[in-house]
Input
Amino acid sequence: MKTYCLEVTGDFACFTRPEMKVERVSYDVMTPSAARAVFEAILWKPAIRWQVSKIEVLKPIKWITLRRNEVGAVVSVRNAQEAMNKGSGNIGLNIEDERQQRAGLFLRDVAYRIHAHFELLPDAGENNTPGKFLGMFERRAEKGQCVNQPYLGCREFACDFRLVDTAQLLPAPISETRDLGWMLYDLDYAKPADPQPRFFRARLENSVLQVPGWDSEEVRG
Output
């Protein structure tokens, strides 16, 4: 399957470490799930699944500490169900009552090249061919079109993107090698009601993060 490359840039990014329970602390580098979400923002269909293969870091890794206001609660599912059954009800949240101020350690001035291809799912159907989705993605990416604005970990950290031709001479990534430790790979939705996180041992080699396949032994639940 053809591999595509997107260059994404943004002022800020936060690829939150799940082990941090209160404050948001970002991974050093974009996670595979965040990279997948950028491709899905351009083209998502139930018949395909994007597989990220490589992430290149184009700018030095820099940090910034910010304090933000967040909402510390979600709308009750039970209240929403009762309102649906009755035809009326109050399911809103008072922001003033639920506001929490939290500090976060975020990345700043980031740029990545992310490489990915899509796979047709077993139940895609006869009418869903690879060529159909290849054409759709290329048209959208070349024109800068997207279903929703891609973002870098948090929705408020929107990013710009452009489709790049890997056959052309591209600027080399920065020269940095480091062990990134265990990184979130993605969520496994085999049980939709109880998605499970999966992790892999990430390593940056000359600012290139190689991403194993979904079924690889390197990816663990």
About this structure: The domain at 4-68+103-210 is CATH 3.30.70.2660 (Alpha-Beta Plaits).
